[in-house]
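Changelog excerpt

This revision adds worked examples to the README so contributors can see how folded entries look when concatenated. The first example is reproduced verbatim below.
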Amino acid sequence: MSAARDPGGRAEQMRQKVQDLQEAAERATDPDERRRLKDQARRLREQSKQADRRGEDVDPM
């Protein structure tokens, strides 16, 4: 099943990527790199939340 037909699976992948980015930000020693990683994680977290909402709208069970 593709990610387009499985919004819950896609959202889970995005949440895992957010976790990976947050961990990388914690390890980063360069302040600019840390900020970039945190910003990327924040944007991806928002996209994940939107995907969750779309999934709920499609399948309200």
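The second example, added in the same revision:
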Amino acid sequence: MPFHRSAVRVRAALAVSLGAVLAVTACSGTGGNARVDAPEASGDGVLRVGLILDNTGDTAFLNAPQLAAAKLAIKDINAAGGHKGRPVELLPVRQDQETAEQANSLAAAKADVVIGPTDSSHAAAAVDVLSNARIPLISPANTAAGLSGMASGGYYFRTAAADVAQGPVLAKLAKDAGAATISVLHQEGSYGKDLSAAVTEAAQQSGLTVLPGAGFKPGNAAEGARSAGKAKPDAVVLIAREGAQGALAELNNAGISGSRIILSDGAFARYGSGLASRVLDGARAVVPGQLPTAAFQEKLLGVDPSLEDVSYAAETYDAVTLAALAAAKAQDDAGRSIAANLIPVSGGAVSGGTAATGTGAPAAPCRTYKECLGGLASGPHVNYDGESGPVAFDSHGDITTAVFSVFTYGPDNNPSPTGRETAGQSG
């Protein structure tokens, strides 16, 4: 059965006030940097994985694919021998609790690693608890750019790319289509401001001329659209969330439509009759991640036959698998050991060097826990590239290679997948 990957349509609900996040976490962590420490083994021999599911209301549908993916990853890990011959355990999930309460419950249950949360604005609450307990947190869905600088003592990672990673891809789509000039129309707020700056920088570096752009508030995009129309750019990059449909209508009124429009992930949607006929005919949009393979979808369905969406499933699966590989490399299930080995098993880099080899070149990619485990048996280095694509954590715990699916709109103003782009250096 076909699944939906619809996480983008709820990104507005997952927005974050980064000032609040960074203020809360200023005192988080235990000092030092767990990502590069060399801790002594201190685990009890059982690798325990916790999962924070923080979605409620309209976003509650995001819980099911993450839970199914975590269960599937642990099933595959245990089929390959588990951790040091013992089964990896998934701790009970407590969706009825707030994020901090879930984190405290998982710490009390002796979690060695925790996967989650979904909402970027909830990252601080989880990190504040878990970093002090020396438990790494790997989010499959946090995308707020400012989280890269969050103080966590080195215990925070994410398998989802930061929003700004799509900047070079949006600029590339414009240039590949023959544009020599672009304007950027962005919705006000941290998402729009940060991504607009990333697009502008990438466009200028690629030789495009960036004409004056504009910001707008939802429902009030007319002036910005008219400004873009007067500038007469070859293409307009629209960076928006809940204000996207109104902005598209105003761009059409200003004479900009069809293939001249490129949409950020937050603006991606099936617009259909919500816009005038053919307004988006030929327009392109990006969505984070690669479309899940049929084989992966089938395996997820085997875990949860009622599953209807795969948002963040691949990123969750990879987060669990990477944690198990980090424990395998360390031959220890303690949180400190996992945090210290996540960068190496991802093929990532620290301080300009490659953690996996120390020579500047990562090991050849391995695609599954079983395959990577075999690599660890024959040598000290592996480079896991999973269901979500390459990971390659950097010194901030961010992925350095971001994969994006490209969609092209038809005359009915609805999108179809037409390609894939990668931003960052391959890892």
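Reviewer comment on example two: The chain is about 30% helix and 15% strand. The CA atoms of residues 120 and 142 lie 5 Å apart.
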